[in-house]
Amino acid sequence: MKDAGTCLKTLRVEVAPDAVAAVREAVEQDVTRAAQVPGFRTGRAPLALVRQRYGTKVREETIRRAIGEYLPKALEQSKLDLLGDPEVTEVSLDDGRPLTFTAQCEIVPEIPLKPIRGLKLTRQAVAVTDTQVESVLAALQERYATLEPVAGQAEKVKKVPALDDAFSALVGVETLEQLRARVREDLTRELTAQQRHAVEDQAVQKLLDQTSFEVPPSIVQSQAERLLRESQWRLLSQGTTPDEVESRKALLAESSKQGALRQVKTFFLLRQVAKAQGLAATESEIEQRIGALAAQSQRTPEQVRAELQRERLLSELVWDVTRGKVLDWLLAQAQIEEKTA
Known about the structure:
Elements: E1 2-5, E2 8-15, H1 17-34, H2 47-78, E3 87-92, E4 99-106, E5 120-124, H3 130-143, E6 146-149, E7 156-159, H4 165-170, H5 176-210, H6 217-237, H7 242-247, H8 249-277, H9 283-297, H10 301-310, H11 314-333, E8 335-339
Parallel strand pairs: 5-8
Antiparallel strand pairs: 1-2, 2-4, 3-4, 6-7
Helix pairs in contact: 1-2, 3-5, 6-8, 8-11, 9-10
């Protein structure tokens, strides 16, 4: 086994001649049973004629079956933590000789975790101001504004409802005091979630800054291409012309590459923390998440699970649950300083 680049290993595999012969014999038996040779009934042709007529097919199938049988064994012995299926090249098979081939394997990066307990983080205290509450109420009033005719004129004027108990009742709350309280609660919940995400980002960045490792270039490239497509589509949907989007492509591509690198490194880093701390999504947690999705979409949990499996998204859901547990653990171990504005 040799290093072949970043997160790449090359495995040279050799299958002994007697093992190859056993595989070839089984292939020849299968081919003979279905062989159609002039002058003989199907499956009754002599082996020598079968070899003469189907020699290439027998050789190709022997190689395919032998690799299929012995590559997994070689990979198991190598103890490599694989990403995807290996690429098989340099296949060689001559009569009486071993079958040899090379498997290029993309592997999970080795990440030397440094101490991750006690990360020093800061968190902005959540404090909803009266100004923020009134701003939300004003926007809500605008949503319920109406256009009303003016006597003797063709034009209509916008009439914004007064901020009172009657307006509160219009939006489903009994009194203005209760409406203000609800808006404050909603803002507090929203700001708390924002602060949580900000602290999580701090924790991840601290880990990235103190941990040096490389990730598979192919995965970064694939993710960068996806981010670039999303950026281009977002600009187009906002009204940017195709020519303008094209003119920004170089900058978008560089930004996408940097974003992809951070995302991929974050994934593997948190994956390593999960492994080190024994954190993983349990079946009950997965069922709970699926149940929540089912309630939101007014479907049964069975329907949601079936769709996730069909779209190959179940593993992403499982990772999302695991990722949440890792971040919970990191923040529980961190030293978080509360700051006020």
